[in-house]
Amino acid sequence: MRNFVLGLSCLTVASMLAMPVSAQQFAPKKPECIAGAAPGGGWDFVCRTTAKVMFDLGLVKERIQVVNMTGGGGGVAYAHVANERADDDNLIVAASKSVSMRLAQGAYPGNTMQDVRWLAAFGAEYGAIAVAANSDIRTLDDLVASLKDDPRSIAFSGGSSVGGNDHLKILKLAKVAGIEDLRQMKYVAFSGGGEAITQLLAGSVQAISSDFSEIMGFVESGDVRIIAVLSPERLAAFDQFPTAKEQGYDVTGLNWRGLYVPRNMSDEAYGFWLDTVRRMTASDEFRDLLVSAGIEPLSLFDADADALVASDIEETQALSRELGLMN
Question: Alpha-carbon distance 98 to 259, whole Å?
Fold first, then answer.
């Protein structure tokens, strides 16, 4: 994963706009972006940001409708696209490392990575551990101390399934902290980051494992407090938040965000969406929106995006076996 993140494209906006486009004969009709979770999470952010910027820049003639399709940690949306919309030229779908991890663990029964076509990975962000603003837990040390006293004393919510990206973050943290029986850790899975945060604010759980962009809005509103960002060093645009590493816990958690499309999409349509996403990601408007959400720009398209997913699946299966989540 790290090699892919370091391999950012150096194409400029000017070179993007100068590229010949063989797919301009195609124009989507009633275009749609599916977010496989409720509003407020990372997939929802991807769809709504993509829809806004593509229309603002005139890259699509019609506004892209955002459809939230919850269930199965993205599995309902994935199966819907693979089984019912496999040849839809007008459909794009929000993707992230959570999707590839679930595929790795067989969490989408009957589906594999070949059931869709991976279009792009255009953002990379780090995870974060947070608590409600009124929580007695003030620091990561406080959280770890409670877990050491009783691993079941802290219930974490997350927007991924058991064994998914959000769950693995806290398991890696617990392992580094010296907690012996990881099976005692309490993790409550929700269909997306928005639902996970709602349960934190309702007091149903004591902490949340999520991605930085999913939490930031609630931090700014004063409802949530970040106690650790899972990045190698403090984020340049949000350096007020400490990392787990600087607090003595060498844990990082990286996620990517992007899009996939139906596997039997026509070549003309795929060429259009590929070029359009490239143009969108090269724009200052899109990059500014990513940075303001704590997401670093990433430029992996087509075969490179496919290779990223394949790498995720291999890495996830190895880690899941090490942690006892898979045989």
Answer: 12
Domain boundaries, the chain: 2-124+256-322, 126-247
Cβ-based neighbour number of residue 132 at 10 Å: 20
Closest by alpha carbon to 32, among 80, 92, 89?
92
Q: List, in sequence order, the alpha helices (H) in the chain.
A: 2-6, 13-18, 42-56, 75-84, 97-104, 140-149, 165-177, 193-201, 212-220, 267-282, 284-292, 303-322
Higher-pLDDT residue of 191, 200: 200
Integer Cα distance of 99 and 97 in angstroms? 5
Q: 2-124+256-322 domain in CATH 3.40.190.150?
A: yes
Pick the CATH number of 126-247 from 3.30.43.10, 3.60.21.10, 3.20.20.30, 3.40.190.10: 3.40.190.10
| Lowest model confidence (mean pLDDT) among 76-90, 130-144, 162-176, 221-235 | 162-176
Assign 11 a pLDDT band (cuts: 50, 70, 90).
very low
Confidence tier at 182 by pLDDT (50, 70, 90): confident
pTM: 0.79
Beta bridge partners of 124: 256, 296
Pairing of strands 155-158, 207-211: parallel
CB atoms within 10 A of CB 24: 12
- Which pair of structure tokens corresponds to residue 137? 């837990």
